[in-house]
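subagent[fold] <- orchestrator: predict structure for attached chain, return tokens only, no commentary.
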Amino acid sequence: MFKRLICSNLMPVASGNWKHSASSRNFAFKRYESRRGSQRRSHYDLYGPDGGHMTGRAGLICLSSVVTAGMILRCDQIGCRSFWLDEAYSWTMATRFSLREIVLRTANDFHPPLYYIVLKCWIAIVDDSEVAQRSLSVLFDLLTMVCLYQFCCDAFAAKKGSCNDENVESRRSVGCLAAAFYAVNAIHIHWSVETRMYSMASFLAVLSSWLLVRSISSAERQWWFAYVLSVTSLLYTHNYGLFTVFGQACFVVALLGKNLVTQPWKRYDVTTRGSDLSNSLVSMVTAAIVICVSFLPWLSILFKQTEQAHAGYWIPKFEWWTIPKTWVDLLIHEDKPVEFRDSATTLTTSLVSLTVIFCFAWKVRTRGAVLLLAVIVSPIVCSAAISVIALPIITSKHYLTACGFFFCALAYVIRILLPRPVSNAAAGILIVNMLYVHLCYRDERQICENSGLRAAVLHLADHIQEGDSVAVANQGMLLTTRYYMSRMLRNSESKDVATAKLFYSVPLISWLGSALIDEKDRMSANELTLSNRKRVWVIGSTGDSPRGLDELPASTWAERSAVAFRSKYSFEGDIRLWLYMPRESS
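subagent[fold] -> orchestrator:
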């Protein structure tokens, strides 16, 4: 074999045929290497030439494993936790009103209507159970992991024609690690099993950012069409999506500035590929105009929602410690166990995060890096400015998108900038630590044991009789009570039993679902007395959420029984269920 190999490479040289000698030699060596065994080729196919990078097949396997693990973590105990106000609000909005009325009702709320419309369609196809409704958010969160992977693969692409360590195999590794961080992060797991719009907003934010990178890198206009559609959907899903879109706009302005100004911005590669400047400029301007025109109808309603927030909102006042504390809540959890609550942890985590962002900004020189920094910083800076100037709007759930993008930067620093042994150790430690925090949170809250309002309504369903009335003493519990009664008592012969009313004597609070509570949904003690009901069930709580009357007038009604149920939510405290009967009948 060696004789044939030498002859096949030396004969063209001896005969003077230099033109074909190199190709013949390469062909001979390829034949020789092909006989070295399938084990070596399999190793190359999975990990690349140096054994440390991911090829397409390995990236697909790794991403599938990450998404599967994320799904398992999110589906664990997904139906154990009782619905609370926000989830019951979503259910009420999606099932009680038409599409037109959903849009009108959201004008008196704090969020756009798109998620409620999507949830309405989802319930019509699947079901309105807790698991069915929450599975929509889980689905969006799993899609977010896939989009994070794709974003990292495209955003960190080097300049065309450049060859360095930041190749496609390395970018796949970064994308898988970013998706893994997102999959095991405690607060993302928490909000991904809520019947709310946060997972959908995160998905659209990452999707639109990835589509923006693809649109700029390609001359095909269908990418711009998809980008416009995703951004418009984001703006109609969550008002905080404006901050992400603002970051994308800053990136586009920097891109145009680099191409239009005579002195190029040499620090970053923000040049377009595959199309000239004129075509790119036309596409960008057209996309911006379409997005602005699409969002214009909602702009006046957004101002109205801002005025309602000025009138009264639950978010605490902004302080200098607010942003570091909120950021730590994202990486650990806002309801974290006691052992994680200290200032040293907050300070250390904040400094490490700033160091990661600084190293990323200093070392990475692709256009995607500029976009990534913009969508990380923009929500934080914009929300802080509004909190200082107008009203406080900073909470950890509103930074979920920025945290997801931060995981991309963190994964890049770990996989590309650190030596491989340190990189593997750091990635493993962070993933294990995030998973540990999630498990601590789950065990401390004892979700399955503290079923709260669901257990109270289940007890009510076992003891209620035809002709009984149900009064809710806490505004924040009315919609949740109605949800469980509609499911547990929908086969009841009495229509009166299936309707709970708010026994509330004080003005309604806007952020406790007042947009969905009409005058017919309320009752007074006098109305209850005149209704000639034999028995009245009153549902209240011992928590710190605002409530009205927990008791009926003692001169007219006598308490016959009281039962307490422990809730997972601290603001609800213990759920109390009282049974009252008219005094003359007691």
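orchestrator: received. Logging for downstream: The longest strand covers residues 557-566. Residues 325 and 555 are 50 Å apart (CA to CA).
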